[in-house]
Specification:
Radius of gyration: 28 Å
Strand content: under 5%
Distance between the termini: 26 Å
CATH topology of the largest domain: Four Helix Bundle (Hemerythrin (Met), subunit A)
Order of helices and strands: HHHHHHHHHHHHH
Mean pLDDT: 77
Length: 267
């Protein structure tokens, strides 16, 4: 049974099958938002959702059998733990006070697509590794926001109190500017008071948008290189003694079964 589970879970078509299930589940969740579809095909959609959940449970069981009795190998893999957590949350009854939690848990199944496709796993790993570096960039950006917010309050509060009336409003206004959403309207309003006000806005856009975005990209690219190197090292890592013994044992069992079949055929 263990050998069969290993063959199934390692087969390329099994991976494609799981990806197809996740995509079908995403479509079902989208159709459930339609009142017409739920009125006409609600029973079918709920059945499909339950069937997909059952197949996900079977998948998890097969992966556990493939590493039996060393279940720790299954749970040591962060992506397996992620999939298992989503399955457990999906088992919450969609009734009573937990109905909303159950619906959101079902929506998390779509995220399983990340754990299934290696390229997406690499991207998520890169983003996680980028968090410490991004923290320093965010700290620098916070200082720039704070300085410009205080300066904007003193420069424009009397002329445009709606956008610069206090520190909090000034920070929200700067966030609007950094997203480049109609920031020129704010600039022209300030220029009605002082024609040189454009220096404040242009300098903030350059520093807050172009420079900071490039810093974020640099941190992510650096983390991407590190993640690729780590993935390459893991692929090149030497096989352990226990893994070799397990492979030999599995091969011996397969050869023994093959020999028994050949003996039955000759008899």
């Amino acid at each position: 049974m263990k050998l069969f589970a290993q063959r199934v879970t390692n087969h390329v078509y099994f991976e494609f099958f799981i990806i197809a299930l996740i995509l079908i589940n995403a479509i079902v969740l989208g159709l459930e938002t339609s009142t017409y579809m739920m009125d006409e095909f609600g029973t079918v959609l709920i059945f499909l959702s339950d069937m997909i959940l059952a197949l996900f449970i079977i998948e998890a069981i097969f992966k556990m059998i493939a590493v039996w009795p060393k279940l720790s190998m299954y749970f040591k893999n962060g992506w397996n733990l992620f999939d298992f957590s989503i399955i457990v949350l999906s088992l919450i009854p969609a009734t009573g006070e937990l109905a909303m939690v159950a619906r959101l848990a079902r929506l998390l199944r779509v995220l399983r697509l990340v754990s299934t496709i290696p390229e997406l796993r690499l991207i998520v790993t890169t983003l996680i590794r980028s968090l410490p570096g991004m923290g320093h960039v965010v700290l620098l950006m916070s200082l720039i926001f704070y300085m410009y917010a205080v300066a904007g309050f003193h420069l424009f509060a009397e002329h445009d109190p709606q956008h610069w009336g206090n520190l909090g409003i000034s920070l929200l206004t700067l966030f609007r500017v950094v997203t480049l959403e109609d920031w020129t309207d704010l600039m022209y309003t300030a220029m009605e008071m002082n024609g040189y006000s454009w220096i404040f806005f242009v300098s903030f856009v350059v520093m807050g948008t172009f420079v900071m975005i490039n810093l974020f990209i640099a941190v992510v690219l650096n983390s991407l290189d590190d993640a690729k190197q780590e993935q390459l090292k893991s692929l090149q890592a030497p096989i352990g003694k226990n893994e070799i013994l397990d492979e030999l044992k599995t091969t011996q069992q397969a050869l023994q079964r093959l020999q028994e079949k050949m003996e039955r055929m000759t008899n």
